[in-house]
Amino acid sequence: TLTTAASILQYLTFLILLHLHVPLLPLLLINALVLGSIDGFATPSTAVYARLLVSAEDVPRAVSITNTRGLVVGILAPTIGGVIVSRWSLAGALWVDLVSFIGVLAVLILIRPARSSGATHGSGGHIGGDVLEGITHLAHEKCLIELLLSLILVSAGMLTVNSLALPLLVRSRHWRASSLGMLSTAWSAGSLIVSVLISARGPARRPVVLMVAGVVLSACSCFALMVTPTVWAGILVMACMGSGVVLFTGHLGPAFIFLTPEGEMSRFSSVLHLAQVLPVAVAAPVIGTIAQRFSVQEALLTMGLLVLGAGVLLCTRKAVRDIVLP
Question: Chain centroid to CA 126: how far?
Fold first, then answer.
C-alpha cells in the first residue's frame, strides 16, 4: 500500500514537472531511479500476498498464476505504452499510469487478508541489516539455500542472453537488425506458453524433475545457439530457451515460497529478488569480456555451463529431490 501510494505521488510530481517544462532527459533519469527504488521495496512484499490470501495447499498455483500475469504484462506493456505515447504523448501515458495505480491502491485498501502474515520485526529498521539477517536465517534452511544457489547460477547464465549475447551474436553472424527483435520475441513466446500451462495445471507435486528439465533445455539451447546457421533456426532455439527458463523458475518460485517459514516471508523474498538481480551485475562484465577476448561462442558456452551447474546442484541434493508440493 505504501509503495503504491509512493508511485502515485511520484507520477503526480512527474506530471507537474513536465507541465513546467523541466528538461526531459534528467527528468526521465530521476524518474527511473525513483521507480526502481520503489519497485525494490514493492517486489519482495508482493510475494507475501499468496500466503495471506489463499489456503496453504493453493499457494503454489497462486504463485504460478501471479508469475504468468506478470509475464503477460511484461510482454504487452511496452507495446501498449508505445501506442499511448505515440497517440497522446508522454503525459497521456503518465495519466494512464496514475489512474491504474489509484485503482490498485483502492483494491489494496479493500482487501482483508484471511490470515496474519507472521512478519518479523527486522533489524531496527535498517534495510541492509534486514537483508543480512535474511541471508543469515536463510543459511539455516538447507533446502531453500540450495534452491537459491541454483537460481543464482541460472540468473547469471540466462538473464544476460537478451541484453548481451543476442546483440553480439546477431552482429557476428551479420544478420539484419530486425533479427534481434524476432529472436527476443521467440524467447517471450516460449516463456509465455510454458507459463500459461503451469498456471492452468499448477506446478508439479515433485518440482525438481521439471526444474532440472528446464535447466537442461536452457543449457542445451545455449549450446545450440553457438552453431545456429540461420535466423529461423535461432528463433526455434530461443523459444526453447525461454520455455526452459520458465519451466525452471515456474517451479522454483512456488516451491521457495511454499517452504519459506511463515515469519520470514518478506526477508526471504528480498533475498530471492537479490538472487535474480545481483548475479547479472557480476556475470555481464565477465561474459562480455569473454566475448571480446575470445568469441561469442565461448561466451555462450560459459553461460550454458553456468546453467548446467544449477542442474547438477538440484540433482545431487537430497533435500531438493524430496520437495513435495500440495
Answer: 25
Q: How far apart are CA 138 and CA 146, in angstroms?
A: 10
Distance between CA 192 and CA 215 in Å, rounded? 17
Cell of 30: 530521476
CA 161 – CA 127 distance, rounded (Å): 31
CA-angle at 88, arms to 85 and 89, nearest 5°: 50
CA distances from 299 to 19, 78, 169, 280, 289 (A): 46, 29, 10, 14, 9
Nearest to 202 by CA among 49, 60, 50: 60
| Coil/strand/helix, residue 175 | coil
Q: Which of 38, 28, 36 has its CA nearest to residue 6?
A: 38
Report pTM.
0.77
Mean pLDDT along residues 114-141: 54
Cell, residue 209: 524433475
The 10s digit of each residue's pLDDT in 288-301 is 899 889 989 999 99
Region 157-182: what's the mean pLDDT?
Answer: 85
Task: Judge residue 244's burial from the number of C-beta atoms within 10 Å of its C-beta, 0-12 exposed, 13-18 middle, 19 or more buried.
Answer: buried
Q: Scanning the structure block, which residue is given the C-alpha cell 543476442?
A: 166
The H-or-E segment that residue 237 falls in is helix 231-259
Region at 21 (left for phi over 0; alpha for psi -120 to 50; beta for the rest): left
Q: What is the pLDDT of residue 104?
A: 83
Q: What is the CA radius of gyration of the chain?
A: 21
Q: How far apart are the first and last CA of the chain?
A: 30
Output the CA–CA distances (angstroms, integers) from residue 273 to 7, 122, 153, 219, 295, in the order listed.
20, 17, 14, 22, 31
Q: Which residue in this structure is represented by grid cell 533445455? A: 217
CA distances from 296 to 253, 284, 315 (A): 31, 13, 29
Residue 223 burial (10 A CB sphere; 0-12, 13-18, 19+): middle
